[in-house]
Amino acid sequence: MRFLAFAILIASSVLFAADDNIVGFNKSSSDNQRALETQMDASINAEEMTEWLRRMSAEPHHVGSLASKEVAEFIAELFESWGYETEIVSYEILLPVPKTREIELVAPTNFVASLREETLAEDPSTAVRETLLQPYNAFSIDGEVEAELVFVNYGMPEDYEILERYGIDVTGKIAIAKYGRSWRGIKPKLAGEKGAIGTIIYSDPADDGYAAGDVYPKGPFKNDSGVQRGSVMDMPTYPGDVLTPGRGATERTRRLKKEDASTITKIPVLPISYRDALPLLSAMGGEVVPQEWRGALPITYHLGPGPAKVRLKAEFDWNMVTAYNVIARLTGSDYPDEWVIRGNHHDGWNHGASDPLSGQVAMLAEAKAVAELAKAGHPPLRTIIYGAWDAEEPGLIGSTEWAEDHADELKAHAVAYLNTDGSARGFLGIGGSHVLERYLNQIAEDVKDPRADISLKERSRAYQVVNGDAKEREEAKDRRDLRISPLGSGSDYTPFLQHLGIASVNLGFGGEASDGSYHTLYDTYEHFTKFKDPGLIYGATLAKVTGRATLRLANAPRLPFEFKGLADNVALYVKEIEELADGMREKTGMENRLIQDGTYAIAMNPYKTFGPPIAKAPVPHFNFAPLKNALGRLQESADAFDEAAANNDETSAAVNKLLYTSERLLTRDAGLDGRPWYKHHIYAPGFYTGYGVKTIPGVREAIEQREYDKVGTQIDIAADVLNDMADRINSLAEML
Questions:
Q1: What secondary structure letter does DSSP report for 308?
Q2: 639-684 pLDDT, tens per residue?
Q3: Number of structural domains the chain divides into
Q4: Which residues form the domain of 219?
Q5: Which of 269, 514, 580, 698 is the most exposed, fewest CB within 10 Å of its CB?
Q6: Is 650 helix (H, G, I), strand (E, B) or coil?
Q7: Which of 382, 352, 339 is nearest to 63 (CA)?
Q8: Burial of 333 per CB tally in 10 Å (0-12, 13-18, 19+)
Q9: What are the tens digits of pLDDT across the range 198-229?
């Protein structure tokens, strides 16, 4: 397979040679831009980045802590020293912090969970305890409950379908779920909807622990006391301050009452280590779990309910705290009213070396290099705004409040938003608006992997050839551009893309480093620099990637928006939705027939330990014609623009404004059905996946959730946004 990948790599490097011209630039301006980028690369210093990382991760610095304010002030001082117009913008937000955390096994034996992570002699950062946030899930409701345990696997919708077949009802029970497969907030959300009165979440060592490799401090994986903190705010409904949805959380803003905030969980939830989970799971009885549900703890996993009975108590101090965003501006020389926005959050759950500071130091290195170019007589043509966001961890709060607070200005002036978060070593991950796919691929073509003498793009292509499925392997060989991932949620691009309709990008390295430290006490400088990115060689490479991304948007005579990538990806999403409906129709029909004649239970479960699925309503045939017709128009207009742009280097302020506001056309003021904060109708976080993206979400989720009466309306809405985009692209093609 290695030889195959190498052979394909050589072939593709000839077939897909890097463009001479950068998209949006002509030959002369491309040469000048690449010369600037070479100067920028020379300014990026991994040793300086390492020192920034050490300093900012020295103490736990969650939002509301003194250390977090000091980190914000340190970042602001750096920007000011480099010549940026800098301010710290504050917002008053609600933040619960733990007061009481108790989990006790009360039957059939007694055990009290420690809920504590151990200090390690090998990592001196773990001895810093004064400002440490103990393991908890932010925006769990207060409560004390006692009930039998039910094991719900990863706590996803399909897991509850399996429990239903076993005849297990979680009503009045406490659900115990594994971290993974979906965003953590979905687990208590769905458990509560199913009638559970509490949720416990733990990391199974099969996913993140000794089954994966050596645990910290010997190796990078989660040790038996590590606990993943994290928010369980219902962010698929809306992110940001829970009391001010849609409005910036300034001092004078009208706020909801806490009891009216719909994104606070309905049941209490606490996270635990797999060391604390073991006695609870060991005490459970009932049926043995299905094979695919089994973890790596040295026990037989049972579903329950009981005989294990647990008392869970969670109480919080619900405090108003100040979040500090650092906003640094470098005014453009030619187009000051066109803004390129670049962001990374600075708050961590604890030390936060990996998440978020590995991305923050890359942004700082980039910003310093951009400032040095400006001082040397090469200022950006457009205004660049850097945002170091606070309060991302509890719910994307700092960025969301700033975006909501400045919504009208951003809709008028924002060209694009570029995001990073935690990063490590490995392969370049790119997610974003597909109007920027070609531009992002060119950047990956122009930057070399620090450990291989090939471009980042071709290393990713080779990986896809070796590790992808059949379709991915075929595309890696035949498609010029690697597909970029559509964006769901989980970081600070969310308010810009999905609320305001600003074309957005998320960049970072990964794939060759464990997530064992994620949101634990062990996300320290020592862990990161030993296991995740020693020497910050990939961190420095990230700064080169994002520096190009920022500068090309800032300096392009014609903004690097193109539409063939959008049309091609939307075609894929439409096909997926058709296949989803066909697959559900076929499966539902088959299961209903087998249930009706009694064959299903005998064929699938001769021992009758669980029952057949419950019969479902037939899946109707949907009229996708409006959506497919709109897609056809989008494809035709994208081709016309591509031809016009290839034959015309000229541009104008009017063309550029139509380009950067084009993403706004994929939104609707009314938002998605049932969650109006999310206004984008091509990309959204899934209502029951959280971070995971749902493309053409109105249509897709109406089908998935079997709300068939809504599908036609959602098809019409999606068709309308595609037709609006096609009209805009045709106007641009005519202007060129």
A1: -
A2: 999 999 998 888 899 999 999 999 999 999 999 999 999 999 999 9
A3: 3
A4: 97-318
A5: 580
A6: coil
A7: 352
A8: middle
A9: 999 999 999 999 999 999 999 999 999 999 99
